Amino acid sequence: MDLLKKIRILADAAKYDVSCSSSGSDRENKNSGIGNASFYGICHSWSEDGRCISLLKILFTNICIYNCSYCVNRCSNDVERALFTPEELADITINFYRRNYIEGLFLSSAVYKSPDYTMELLIKTVKKLREEYNFNGYIHLKAIPGADVNLIRLAGLYADRMSVNIELPSEKSLKLLAPQKTKESIIKPMSFIHNQLMEKSESKKLMRRTDKFVPAGQTTQLIIGATPESDRTILKLSENLYKYYDLKRVYYSAYIPVFNDNNILGMTSPPLLREHRLYQADWLLRYYNFKADELLTEEEPNFDVSLDPKINWAMKNLNLFPVEVNTADYNMLLRVPGIGLRTANRIVKARKAAYLNYDSLKKLGVVLKRAKYFITCNGKYYGECEIETDKIKNKLLPKRNVIEGQLSIFDIDNTLNNLPIIV
Ligand code: SF4
């Protein structure tokens, strides 16, 4: 099979991993213009210092010995298969890099022959890049569940970031949809990477030079909507992953219904709005000091997808509002819908110099169309209704239909009926 065909198959097969987003562009260079976006699998990701970097996102192979019900690459699925050699993939990466198409590599793989054998192939590829080509660009490498920890250790010396995908939010769902994987085969490498990172950070304090091990940390991915776990179960799992494994990110991937499988919940389109709400809630956990148990309860384990999770929380805790922006403490300001991290900092700084009025809040960047229902300014309340859940909700709900998922260009009637009303 020629290389271009392998790239096409294996870059396409990698698109279901959302740890970085695919550009999906297909614009060729014509008439000696500048740039070429026709190459498969180039996506963008963000580095620790906030730079946007382009990555070649690709699988080493999509030939898999496992049969995970949710996966397009499962062994029982009839798809075109391909396999690189480490030399081929290292050469492709370095050639793309030299042509300035990419700044790094995002390399994953199906389980080919065995987890250890696959991990060895991935290591050979990145070792070649680092040691033979002296490639110093960014490498994000998948740890294959079930691979020996000694291989994970070796891989971590070459990769900037690693990830072990949990995929399913409970052991029960894992047994049902991915019976060849076990909770242990996923948690063990994750825990090993975490322990290695802690050891490295300790030895850095004692030694001037230590080997770099996964310097950009580890991440994971959870599939949303294929199994019945609630938002609360998913968010509590993420909270524990951040707390106990110090993960850099948990990515949420709305399940794309490609199969009719009795074990997978029936759906016609990916639950994209639910995925979006989980990302927003995840942000609240990481930066706004919220706890999963505050955002969702056993009685109400799922988000109202029509409102963002911060507004949802504020609605359930209206007894804490309105807060006076001139005196509220920083943590309470952070909990006001419409006030973000930067705005809360600006408010705290600005009010030291002068009493803030409604107009000054606008200048500080407060999103008043949301915040006005939850604050007072110099004792005055600017919300256009009483502080009651239904009334505020009515004001805050978008004045248009909320469409879950992407509009289809093929289902014309349905699409036209669902078009949002622009107000
Ligand atoms: S092991 Fe990975 S590639 Fe193979 S079927 Fe499962 S999810 Fe798909």
Automatic annotation (TrEMBL):
InterPro entries: Aldolase_TIM, DNA_rSAM_put, Endo/Exo/Phosphatase_dom_1, rSAM, rSAM_sf, RuvA_2-like. Residues 58-188 form the Radical SAM core domain. It holds the Pfam family Radical_SAM. It comes from the Bacteria. One of its GO terms (molecular function) is catalytic activity. Keywords: Iron, Iron-sulfur, Metal-binding, S-adenosyl-L-methionine. PANTHER family: ENDONUCLEASE/EXONUCLEASE/PHOSPHATASE FAMILY DOMAIN-CONTAINING PROTEIN 1, TYPE II SECRETION SYSTEM PROTEIN K. This is Radical SAM protein.
